[in-house]
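Hi V.,

You were right to ask for the full record rather than a summary. Here it is.
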Amino acid sequence: MSEVNIVEAPPGIEGSGFFATSLDKVIGMARANSLWPLPFATSCCGIEFMATMGSHYDFARFGAERLSFSPRQADLLMVMGTIAKKMEPVLKQIYLQMAEPRWVLSVGACACSGGIFDTYSVLQGIDEIIPVDVYVPGCPPRPEAILDGVLKIQELVKNESGRRRNSPEYKQLLAKYGIQ
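Predicted structure:
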């Protein structure tokens, strides 16, 4: 839970009190509870994600019910399933089209590590081409695991400093992936 303190108003200012908190915490809380995910689903993990969107698990209660199929409107890329090497430039282009700040959730064994497909045609983990924030293991992972991954992303977003994206460490991480 965010730390919000109610402070008594200084003398001469009417009102019972005002809120005092850091701007980073307010922005983090707003971002965490209004994620716009872009699902990039290719196989059985996509089916599990569909179950997560259903009424039984209710993905909407986490503030992420508005799926965006446009990278320019999304801030959470959810990669689910087997990623063939032919899809590598497409996935990277989608990531690059997303505005900052952006987060990536890798769902399933295939997206995380190539899964059982140790072949020349399958990418052995999407972290070879784009940075990943949270991994959800499983083959395929259950909807509860996907929801847990989203909760971890929300926690990361909530606690992320507004200055992190401009830090030398973050710029060095993007440079590792060939992203300017």
